[in-house]
Amino acid sequence: MASDGPLVPAPAGTAATAGTDVNRARDEAEDREGTGPRSPSGPTERTGTVLSEGERLLNELRETLARYVVLPSPEALDAVTLWIAATHLQAAIQHAPRLAVVAPVKRCGKSRLLDVVTETVHRPVITVNSTPAAIFRSISKADPPTLLVDEADTIFGTVKAAEKNEELRGLLNAGHQRNRPSLRVAGPDHTPTEFPTFAMAAIAGIGDLPDTVMDRSIVIRMRRRAPGEKVAAFRTSRDVPALHALRDRIASWLKTHRRAAAHLEPEMPVEDRAADTWEPLVIVADLARGRWPDLARTACAAMVGHEAGEEEDTGLKVRILTDIRAAFASCNNPDALPTTRLINILREDPEAPWAEYGTNGLTPRLLGILLQDYGIRSANIRFPEGGQAKGFARNKFLDTWERYCTAPTSADSSGA
Fold first, then answer.
1. In whole angstroms, what is the distance from residue 21 CA to residue 374 CA?
2. Three-class SS of residue 195?
3. Residue 159's pLDDT is what?
4. pTM
5. pLDDT tens column, 226-243
6. C-alpha–C-alpha distance, residues 327 and 345, integer Å
7. Using alpha carbons only, what angle is made at residue 45 by residues 44 and 46, rounded to the nearest 5 degrees?
8. Using CA atoms, how far apart are residues 247 and 253, in angstroms rounded to an integer?
9. pLDDT in tens, 286-303
10. Taking Cα atoms as reference points, which of 101, 351, 54 lies closest to residue 203?
11. Distance CA 197, CA 98 (A)
């Protein structure tokens, strides 16, 4: 496989963390490249403390974002700030997090945020009306761009649209991790050719993006401004030059730390794919020092936790597991429940979506589809009250409940 870029791998068996190891890696890189941190100019923000260049630049970028857009929380503002800065480190990072800017309705500030992001990220490539082939050819191995996708709801919002744009979704998924090129035929001889996919991407739209994209994203859930929340007007001729100047200063600062960044493996407050997605942002924060390492980890823990809650509330494939566990508990956790009885219990819950699920509510077939990814199927079971019927054995759910559901209440766990 061809490499998607000049990532310098971390030495085996080492893990630089926030603090001494981060500073050592950064200082060694500065020595090798013949430069060190420049003295900050202008007033400091913490009394009696001289800010590092990185902290000063991130503070300025954060203030600039807040001038034009009201983000849903301070943590979201910190996250967007760090994500923008991380686009200038793409040559040194292992994962390329997506920035999913979603909102329930129009006029929530998505496009304005994308305007500011466009003018401050590294090598923006706007994908409006672009074909997947053109986007593939815009991604360079040595210098990945930052993809910008607006109105994603028109691309993924319906089944028909999603099927039509499956190639773009595949690119967005593959490009989250380095060394995942896409194989396409090219040229008059239809030669199989590898195209790099690794590139950070900001994606804005109404409603959630496909689950596979959301799972690889820093998720910003925009909302309409309250009456007392004011922002500055955005004027291209007036504001873009200043944004470009800030962008160039951030790029120059991070260029001097690229070798250090490639060797860092920071301590993360989350695990698995969430840690992969947030790691570039935490690396930027650790390089900046000051208050930013704490801000980055606080934002990471809070926003990943919030998305986990969103998934529990709206992810039907997780919701069905939780509700089936409650259904068994309501019957004193028998060894098995007939399919018809289980479905009746699920549909009778006034706070659950199952009475309206599908055309006529939850059916045995739809229940089977929801459970098929977990490998859980109904079977012919002989019940104590007599007779044989299709049903679900409780022990088939135990491992799945433990893996995918939150800790059960005492009622749910009784008889476990």
1. 42
2. strand
3. 66
4. 0.69
5. 888 999 999 999 999 999
6. 6
7. 100
8. 10
9. 999 999 999 999 999 999
10. 101
11. 13
Helix (H, G, I), strand (E, B) or coil at 293: helix
CA–CA distance, 144 with 197 (Å, rounded to integer): 9
Task: Judge whether 350 and 298 are in contact, CB under 8 Å.
Answer: no
**Separation of alpha carbons 324 and 344, rounded Å:** 11
Q: Which residues pair with 149 in a beta bridge?
A: 203
Contacts of 415 (CB under 8 A, 6+ apart): 329, 332, 333
| Whole-number Cα distances in Å, 330 to 10, 26, 44, 408, 409 | 52, 58, 61, 13, 12
Q: Which of 149-163, 180-194, 376-390 has the highest mean pLDDT?
A: 376-390
pLDDT tens figures, 165-204: 888 888 899 999 999 888 887 778 888 888 889 999 999 9
Of 285, 295, 248, give the one whose Cα is nearest residue 26.
Answer: 285
Q: How far is CA 23 from CA 54, 261, 285, 290, in A?
A: 13, 11, 12, 12
Q: State the Cα–Cα distance between residues 234 and 112, nearest whole angstrom.
A: 8
56-59 contacts at long range (C-beta below 8 A, 24 or more positions apart):
57/85, 57/246, 57/249, 57/250, 57/253, 57/288, 58/82, 58/85, 58/284, 58/285, 58/288, 58/292
Contact 33, 259 (CB under 8 A): yes
Query: 206-227: buried (b, 16+ CB within 10 Å) or exposed (e) per residue?
Result: bebbbeebbbbbbbbbbeeeee
**For helices 272-288 and 53-68, angle between their N-to-C axes, nearest 10 degrees:** 110
Torsion of CA 381, 386, 389, 395, to 10 degrees: -30
d(CA 277, CA 210): 16
